[in-house]
What we know:
Blueprint: E1 16-24, E2 30-34, E3 39-46, E4 48-53, E5 56-61, E6 64-68, E7 74-78, E8 85-92, E9 105-107, H1 110-126, H2 149-169, H3 175-180, H4 184-204, H5 213-220, H6 224-235, H7 239-257, H8 262-268, H9 274-285, H10 289-301
Antiparallel strand pairs: 1-8, 2-7, 3-6, 3-8, 4-5, 4-7, 6-9
Amino acid sequence: MGYNGITLKNSISISKIYSIHYFEYMSNFSFAGESHNFWEFICVDKGEVGVTAGKTYTVLKKGDVAFHQPNEFHDVNATGKIAPNLVVIAFQCDDEAMDFFRERILRIDETERNLLANIIIEARRCFDCRLDNPYLQNMPLKEPDMFAAQQLIRLYLEHFLIHLIRRYSNPITLHKQLVKSEVPKATKSKSDVEVFNRVVDYLASHLNTTVTIEQICKDNLIGRSQLQKIFKERCDMGIIEYFTLMKINAAKEMMRTNHLNFTQISEHLGYSSIHYFSRQFKKVTGMTPSEYASSIKAMAEGSF
């Protein structure tokens, strides 16, 4: 008896990508708005923005994603409170399943956040342009691009949309039952996650100080070797390196918010001098504070 193959059905198929962007805006950024005959969504990774969709105005916060259907006018403006980071993706999809997203504002979960991160990673491998230029209308391909980067973008994006539809259409109610069935190894992993999250919260509350590993261990009741092991496994870096990265990310946000000068930012984050702060900033970002601030300012003003 011969085998009968099954032609797999597509419920959502992305036929074209028009743009993939990750923006780090200043807190006073404003985009006048546009409309086009394809889909677009905006997802807030950090901060908040005001978005107009048609005649409706909404403030989106971290984790919110808003969909703009074809030919719908939309604009975006920073609220002036927090410098926002945004993912914006525009694409062509003509399937009926897209009706689910019309006039929808949803919240992403961890799986969907990871899928968006994967799309950004593949876009950097695929397109020969900056992903932070809000005025770029065409994205030239790298020649050659990385093997299967274009296909992965499509697959990740389709997965992102399917996951949203499934999650909002069929809420999972068995989470507590699943947690009870964890094996001891999973329990240990969960314990490590709790320690990691607790220490990260501790570091976030000490961004304006200088802390040592000994102090972190003492204040969080954890051994030095265990602490280093957890951070190495979860983010492939030491805890002090991670703390430095947190400080520099905080400095970048303060620059985009545009309320403090470099000296004030340096002092606010507990650096002993502006010169040490500048060296650390360049080590992490590859740019001096001045270079970073001017590039963000140029992006916000459209002066490329």
